[in-house]
């Protein structure tokens, strides 16, 4: 009886051990990659598509795409990194390009360098520059914020303009057209949030400058492009050809409601513009207006983000391989996300695909994607530095005074003082 | 002997007593005392993110040359100087009106005025944002009544944005203070008022010469907690301005600036800790002043 029981016991123990090791083996094989990003209709949907593609060839790897608000992603990432507990962090995280250097420099060793794995020569150079620190490249370049001038053809026509009149214009001409459109149709030229420095950033980068120089030092008082950008925004505001907006959704409302004639912003807005089916055929896209200074172009960038792998991730190798397989090589994937989501990726090879050559009926049959990808290659590369958020707030702090007649040079001095206070 | 051990100094040597409070003491030490000292240590360090170095008084020197900090401090003090007296007076007046037993619908008014302070901070800020929009209900009402000719830019003009924050926090916290006064008023003997009325003391004089002096300890208490609350003001401004403290930093508070320094800007935990100690220092000074003034009047 005693022996019988003991025999049972050992058999049970062996079985338990076997099943435990079996479980351990399956746990080791099935890898789940956790990803944090924002915008369910854009980043989240695109990442799910990418994950599904990878799982097809690697059935052992699954994906958990977590959707947060952008500020929540940033805050959670920052607290997680600061606390030093890797368990609180995902395997892959989406970071907006303006903030990339901040994270890379202030949390050294937190992100995996992909320099040896990914062939960065195939990507738009300005995207790669945003993720390079000391010659090492971190992250996988994702969507571009290449800018365009979206305009309402019907309002233009009522005011006596043709689509050709919007091609390759200057900002001064843009303001003139805006005044005429308001006089003839009663519509404002654009929506503008005075608490958002996005337009200043677009114009400054279009002339190859930024708040900071190539070394990351503040470049404000002597920055001709920034000065011209502030002057331009000041002119737009004092000409009163804009509809004021308070916050993002308010700003989106200015053009979805049909109150304004143009939108100057990044290509990622296309999905929102097209979300109004009743406005189909009424929109066109032109390159953004240029400044009349040296180095001025019609191409710029607003926003755009990239994927980063956490160094501490248990699934680091799989995460890197996944990004490289899909975002680094899969041309077909880029066609799909362009058609489905209006995402212009920054992999240059993807620009030759059929989706880019397709005409868009919403824009009256224009080949808008072709245009955007042409402009993408022309976006001047700048160093976003690590203090873009600080500089942005310093700029918006001066905008009201600027419209009340404060000389631009004085505003630049105030911005410079505020930025200098943050750089310690 | 056993009795002597229970009371007096012997109590401190009772192991059982210490065992009972040990878990609580441990938690307080870990989650309150340790962070306080750690943040004090942090305020002497500077650097980007995790790369912190001991910097001596560099953060304190930086305060003086930081225009954004000066702006945030000025704004916070403006809220404090303008809003706290208005709110305390308003709460006092409302409390003494609602303390009148002959008032019809007393319970309703008490609840209605207290209700704002139990609403969600985010919900009410969002509501205010909508109400005070350029074409919101407030502007359209004021225009319909003929009080203003053109809509007030509540959210895009530096002055009006500040006014909006003051209106919002007054709306939310007046009822909270009023409850304290109501409770205290219940403890004042009604016969004092009876006597005053018989002696022909007018209502306003009864308020200033009976109600206010008798409520002094409660007024002191509410002033101190309102001071602390106002100096820590964050949610309203964050939600009304999408976290930016705009326009032109006109509504930026010290707490929002600390948030920006930690989560929005290049993370500088050391400097953020220094700014939070500025709040600590100001709260301490102001609370001391208030206690001091109240004590003076006692003599």
TrEMBL record, chain A:
Look up keyword Signal and say if it applies: yes
Q: Which domain of life is it from?
A: Bacteria
Q: What is its main location?
A: periplasm
Q: Where is the signal peptide?
A: 1-30
Give the GO cellular component terms, alphabetically: periplasmic space
Keywords from the named record: Periplasm, Plasmid, Signal
Q: Which InterPro entries match?
A: Bact_solute-bd_prot1, SBP
> Which Pfam families is this protein grouped with?
SBP_bac_8
Q: Where in the cell is it found?
A: Periplasm
**Entry-linked PANTHER family:** ARABINOSE-BINDING PROTEIN-RELATED, SUGAR BINDING SECRETED PROTEIN
Q: Which family does it belong to?
A: Belongs to the bacterial solute-binding protein 1 family.
Q: What is this protein called?
A: Lactose ABC transporter substrate-binding protein LacE
Q: Which organism is it from?
A: Rhizobium fredii (Sinorhizobium fredii)
Q: Which gene encodes it?
A: lacE
From TrEMBL, chain B:
Q: State one Pfam family annotation.
A: BPD_transp_1
Membrane-related topology note: Multi-pass membrane protein
Q: So where does this one cross the membrane?
A: 17-37, 77-95, 107-127, 159-183, 214-234, 269-293
Locations listed in the record: Cell membrane
Q: Which GO terms describe its cellular component?
A: plasma membrane
Any signal peptide, and if so, which residues?
A: none
Could you tell me which SUPFAM superfamilies the record lists for this protein?
Answer: MetI-like (SSF161098)
Predominantly, its location class is membrane
- Name of the protein this chain belongs to: Lactose ABC transporter permease
